[in-house]
Amino acid sequence: MTGTFNTVIQLIYLAAASCFILGLHLMNNPATARRGNQVSIAGMIAAIIATGVLVIHLGVITATGWIVLLAGIGVGGGLGLYTARTVKMTAMPQLVSVFNAVGGGAAALVAIRDYSQLGSHIGAATSVTTLLDVIIGSVTFSGSIIAAGKLQGLITSAPVTFPGARIVNLLLAATAVGVGGYVIASPSLIGLGIVIAAALIFGVSMVMPIGGADMPVVISLLNAFTGTAVAMAGFVINNTGLIIAGALVGASGGILTKLMADAMNRSIGNIMLGGFGSGDTAVAIEGPAGAGVQSIAADDAAIQLAYASKVIIVPGYGLAAAQAQHEVAALADLLESRGVDVSYAIHPVAGRMPGHMNVLLAEANVPYPLLKEMDEINPEFARTDVALVIGANDVTNPAARRPGTAISGMPILDVDAAKSIIVIKRSMGHGYAGIDNELYANPKTSMFFADAKKGLAELAASVKTLVA
Amino acid sequence: MTGTFNTVIQLIYLAAASCFILGLHLMNNPATARRGNQVSIAGMIAAIIATGVLVIHLGVITATGWIVLLAGIGVGGGLGLYTARTVKMTAMPQLVSVFNAVGGGAAALVAIRDYSQLGSHIGAATSVTTLLDVIIGSVTFSGSIIAAGKLQGLITSAPVTFPGARIVNLLLAATAVGVGGYVIASPSLIGLGIVIAAALIFGVSMVMPIGGADMPVVISLLNAFTGTAVAMAGFVINNTGLIIAGALVGASGGILTKLMADAMNRSIGNIMLGGFGSGDTAVAIEGPAGAGVQSIAADDAAIQLAYASKVIIVPGYGLAAAQAQHEVAALADLLESRGVDVSYAIHPVAGRMPGHMNVLLAEANVPYPLLKEMDEINPEFARTDVALVIGANDVTNPAARRPGTAISGMPILDVDAAKSIIVIKRSMGHGYAGIDNELYANPKTSMFFADAKKGLAELAASVKTLVA
Amino acid sequence: MLLTDFIIFVLSLWVGFEVISKVPATLHTPLMSAANSIHGIVLAGAIVIAATAHNPVGYILAFFAAAFATMNVVGGYVVTGRMLKMFKRRPAPATPAGPPIEPSPNGARGATASGGTANTGASNGAKA
Amino acid sequence: MLLTDFIIFVLSLWVGFEVISKVPATLHTPLMSAANSIHGIVLAGAIVIAATAHNPVGYILAFFAAAFATMNVVGGYVVTGRMLKMFKRRPAPATPAGPPIEPSPNGARGATASGGTANTGASNGAKA
Lengths: 468, 468, 128, 128
Ligand SMILES: NC(=O)c1ccc[n+]([C@@H]2O[C@H](COP(=O)([O-])OP(=O)(O)OC[C@H]3O[C@@H](n4cnc5c(N)ncnc54)[C@H](OP(=O)(O)O)[C@@H]3O)[C@@H](O)[C@H]2O)c1
Ligand SMILES: NC(=O)c1ccc[n+]([C@@H]2O[C@H](COP(=O)([O-])OP(=O)(O)OC[C@H]3O[C@@H](n4cnc5c(N)ncnc54)[C@H](OP(=O)(O)O)[C@@H]3O)[C@@H](O)[C@H]2O)c1
Prior knowledge:
Chain A is of the alpha/beta class. Chain A has helices spanning 3-26, 33-58, 63-86, 92-118, 124-152, 165-185, 189-207, 215-236, 240-263, 268-272, 298-306, 317-321, 325-337, 356-363, 374-377, 452-467; strands at residues 310-315, 341-346, 371-373, 386-390, 420-425, 445-449. One NADP nicotinamide-adenine-dinucleotide phosphate (NAP) binds at residues 213-214, 216, 264, 282, 284, 316-318, 321-322, 349-354, 356, 391-395, 425-427, 429-433, 451-452 of chain B.
């Protein structure tokens, strides 16, 4: 191919990469996030078209090649578009995880294809990256699928582990790397097969012991893996675009993983080693229990809300579990129509994925400005008549303020500063962290024991009767 | 040279560049800034040693070459060390500007040497970067020297301009670029000479019309230029280390320039076009003037300070001009010994360079924690008995709060929130922005007309007598 | 070639490391999804191996590579777009749009957790 | 070669663009000075041209290049160091060390103007 032609292609890749960078940059800020995504898309289109032109220019591709390629693009594109369009907002993390899997898979396939084709004619340097690509790609592929399965509930979200699991993992890793080293020295497809198998199994056994609630972090980590795998693929087929974009994702994904873990004050380390990520094992003890806990009836709660001047709604995982987003929005509208100042307190890790509450409430068309970040709303609780806690537990638990508890150090919503507190949940059941919540024993607190969806409907009804 | 050897050198350059990046990253935060500088130094040492080894390995360098090189390093190093060690803290910006000049000069020399040596044997691509290097380097060289001269007062800090200056600049730029293009096509040393001359003169005529007070921003801009020139030098001698480090400085320097300009709410554009950067043309009208302005005597001021429970000191350019840093520190100690709670309100652009007040007060060993950034201290003025304004003017001018003034929109220190205000300055003279300060007419304000150094000494004296 | 590739790789790592500043937790999932779409660029790799495939195995590998990669890139961007829709702004009925945060003098770049919301808040105010 | 050099150049620009986040104004001058020292790396260039010099002109150019560059690098770092000394911490006599700022949950990276001071403030508190 002519030098200049290649140069142009390279420059397009560079421009595309710059778009990706700018896109991520803009996504650091809610105000510019959407533009960021568009910039990123533009870059991607440019890069793909450039590659297409390059291939045509090379002219080596066979007719079958074209058919295969376009068929693949058609099938993949269709699947991607359909799933992405139809998935429920709250199921997005598992979908992202699936996209992760296929991304990693594709990267691995590129290397496999390259290896199988070149056979023994490849220099050691190249085939190191080839093997890295195969291993990382395969691990991401199986790991991401398991992660998606856990979030989707197809696989138990509880940590699955067995004695000696650690050793098995070590053996698998050793096999992948060891045999990998061997097949670099003396190329063999069987060897490669063993490597792939070991890597795939390792991916499974790496994610299985991790609790469903920790999956967002795991997915983000696997995302970083995929990035690295893609970068390696770039080395293999010597494509700058892949190298830059892959490394970009690898590093930013890593940082992002750390930010996520920090937000739910876990360390990446103890997440990967499993532990209390057990998620929703919180058994719902039926009926109220616990000393000094006072419960309240729908009507009384409705009166408090209707005649309050400022109400803050504190949504939690329970709201998502009950799919009660529309009910809560309806109640809020009702109160606002009575001139009550209503806003939502969004804890960074309320729910089971970052931004869980935002997606949920967005589904019910709650105006974004009503959603207040923790740092912003905490001072306002003191001026609040009623804090309405709906299926939130840990994020309101004052125990976080003193050391020695499972959630110690996690910043919480200062719900207990409000003049009075109404908590809607089904029982005295625990949250994700699996500990009691002192808030419920607070004299200012009254518990409204109900499923969030039903409970909110009742509340709305009784408020209406009040107005009438 | 052997491939692996070269590879090692390249990797060392890469490591060095990473140190530079990490260094800058750490410098974003006062807590880690010093470590950042050390990391950066480590990287630099590695890069230089690697280059030395490379040269030895090449073995082409002549004995004279060694002598010349070491002599140059010795002389330059000595000069750099001496000036850097001995310069007064407040004269640092001009010194930085000098280092800028020599950096740009060195970059230009590299390209000149390369051009003169290779003559006509160079491909167009290379010699474009060569010419860019020569031009940018030369502009930075002369421009930085002028900037330093203005700050040092060797050249009038007032904007120097003449009718048609703009046209002259355009002509110079045109010459440099035009002839530059010509000498790429048909190499000629005379041509190169013309380019250099034009660039040098352009540097001068670019900076002359800019007021002394805007120099910090100009220096930062020229800093970015030097970075770019160095990157170009990297292209010329095909050295990755230079390319990475140069581009790094070029971009970060650019961002930094913007941050600086924003902080003193100027746009880089209108700074470069000159304008009200005229600096200290503020004529000191002798003796008090102005309606409704009440002045105060040393003793009365001393009493107010001595019996206050909370005093905030607001230093400004005047404190630096009077070199009264030690006097103010002494007064503060005196008050603290009487149990008065004293702190300093540091406006981001108080003085004539960013951090001017910090360097100044650091010289008098004022503990860093006593210096409060604007956002941090503004709320405290309301709880303050006496705000002692020393040679500060614009940064306290309430006019900034309403539109249409020269400083509109500049965030200011809410001095007028304090219970009473004492202002030490020589007269009703204007500040950098050249506008009246309504604060002085405020009934709560009493003016203590004096040179900051003398005035503060008096105050301290009378406080002492009170104690005795 | 491998060397320069490696240099490019490391520099890109640095960019990725620096580009994510303090992000409001709300944006964690969209950002993850965005990064996810970006590695869909592996499609370029899939195209290349399809171009050099000449035997059944090659074709099969190429097919799956292309399908996987396209699913990643298309799906990734669409999902991200949907997530970000939740930042669409509609005038806030009752509450004030944002906290009265002092614009910091050099608030030029890099959204901070609170800074981020402040921005949106502000622009809401403008729209409302 | 020129192409890869250019790619490296652009990526480095991005790093430089991203690495400077919101910096307290106090740090503007030290940062400027730090960046200034970094371009002292041109000394490497000076060494190279000294190595290839074989005639008086070459020697003279090499000499000045070396002298200039070394002055830049040595002076730059020393001055930066001196400026940063002013961030040395001594226990604050009277005033509290810092504002009681809630540690933001994801306060992982990137100092903000106020955040910056908060950090120092906090650590003073610890030391004092
Ligand atoms: N956001 C993230 O990225 C993320 C990721 C992983 C883990 N986490 C963790 O998840 C937790 C989130 O805290 P959270 O307060 O939002 O939730 P939570 O602490 O897990 O508590 C949820 C509560 O909702 C109640 N509930 C469940 N189903 C309900 C229904 N249908 N109707 C009404 N109430 C229902 C449960 O009590 P009853 O059984 O009595 O009803 C439970 O106590 C934090 O510990 C966080 O660290 C967050
Ligand atoms: N920090 C930066 O990076 C930077 C850079 C460029 C420009 N600026 C601009 O500089 C200004 C800084 O504001 P500022 O309040 O610090 O200073 P200012 O507004 O320039 O006012 C300084 C005041 O100090 C008084 N003064 C001068 N010499 C004195 C002496 N020997 N003793 C006592 N008082 C003396 C003068 O009044 P008398 O003549 O009556 O004494 C003058 O009004 C801002 O407008 C800023 O935008 C800052």
